[in-house]
Specification:
By secondary structure, this protein is mainly α. It has two domains: 38 residues; 226 residues, MetI-like (MetI-like fold, Orthogonal Bundle). The protein is built from 14 helices and two strands. Strands 1-2 form a two-stranded antiparallel ribbon. Helix 3 packs parallel to helix 8, helix 8 runs antiparallel to helix 11 and helix 8 runs antiparallel to helix 12. It is globular. Its main location: membrane. It is found in: Cell membrane. InterPro entries: ABC_transporter_permease, MetI-like, MetI-like_sf.
């Protein structure tokens, strides 16, 4: 009886502590998520009431050139930001994982872009890409004419890619550095005794042992790139000529300026499903590697 008497206040305290989190989850995640699922099957403008239309939004989506163009741009943007970010982060993390006071300071230095607010970073890069900004100044030093970085349909997407790689790399450097420092030192000692070279050691020992960390970085990097909105919104406004209109921007444009909330909700559901599939494939690769 005494144990039950003690358990009851503990259970009450547990409920009281978890209730705010549960309420926050229900109000700000579960309810909006369920509402978005419902709205994706309706014709809904913000001034009216939802009108059930079934799968019409999804049928419209895959016949919409704007959606297909945005989906393709999102794929290109994701690949071209994720791959160089991870490769460069790994190349920087390997030397920075070594002990030393200088490396500790350098690790703090590379984190500066990652902790800067994305909106502020975007505004800085607008200045860098301006006609007399740093990018064109550097080109002038090697005799190349100034470029219209943010107003050229050929260059705008690559301007966004460069900014996002610079912004994201620092966080991944720190994650990969932590992963490298956690690797067992005796494995490298045995490899050195066997006469293994630096390249062989890196490809045959470091990369396989670092696979879990690399896949973690890959998952969060791909998920972040597929949801990218702020760079396209602040730097180019989805232009020029829709050249940087990634899917999150296209969803936003249909939801608010055009007030096609039902159609935007349907596109959001498709983006969510795509992200779940991509993440599942990545985790499946991890499981396969473990086996």
């Amino acid at each position: 009886m005494l144990d039950r008497g003690r358990a009851r206040p503990q259970a009450t305290a547990g409920v009281a502590l978890t209730l705010p989190v549960a309420v926050f989850f229900v109000v700000f995640w579960l309810v909006p998520f369920l509402a978005a699922i419902y709205l994706s099957f309706t014709d809904y403008e913000m001034a009216g009431t939802p009108n059930w239309i079934g799968l019409a939004n999804y049928e419209r989506m895959f016949a919409d050139p704007g959606f297909l163009n945005s989906a393709w741009i999102t794929v290109v943007y994701t690949v071209c930001t994720v791959v160089p970010t991870i490769v460069l982060a790994l190349l920087v993390a390997v030397p920075l994982s070594k002990p030393g006071r200088l490396n500790r300071r350098l690790r703090a230095l590379v984190m500066i872009p990652a902790v800067m607010p994305l909106a502020a970073t975007s505004m800085v890069w607008v200045i860098i890409y301006s006609d007399r900004g740093m990018a064109n100044t550097l080109l002038g030093l090697v005799g190349i004419d100034p470029q219209s970085w943010l107003t050229s349909s050929d260059l705008a997407i690559w301007a966004l890619v460069v900014m996002v790689v610079w912004k994201s790399m620092g966080l991944f450097v720190i994650i990969l550095t932590a992963g490298l420092q956690a690797l067992p030192g005796e494995v490298y000692e045995a490899a050195a005794i066997d006469g293994s070279g630096a390249v062989t050691t890196f490809t045959r020992i470091t990369l396989p042992l670092l696979r879990r960390t690399l896949l973690f970085v890959l998952v969060i990097s791909v998920a972040g790139s597929m949801q990218a909105f702020v760079p396209a919104f602040l730097l180019t406004g989805g232009g020029p000529a829709d050249a940087t209109q990634v899917l999150p921007y296209y969803i936003w444009a249909n939801a608010f300026p055009y007030e096609h909330m039902g159609y935007a909700a349907a596109m959001g559901m498709v983006l969510l499903v795509a992200m779940v599939i991509v993440s599942a494939l990545q985790f499946g690769f991890l499981k396969g590697g473990d086996e």
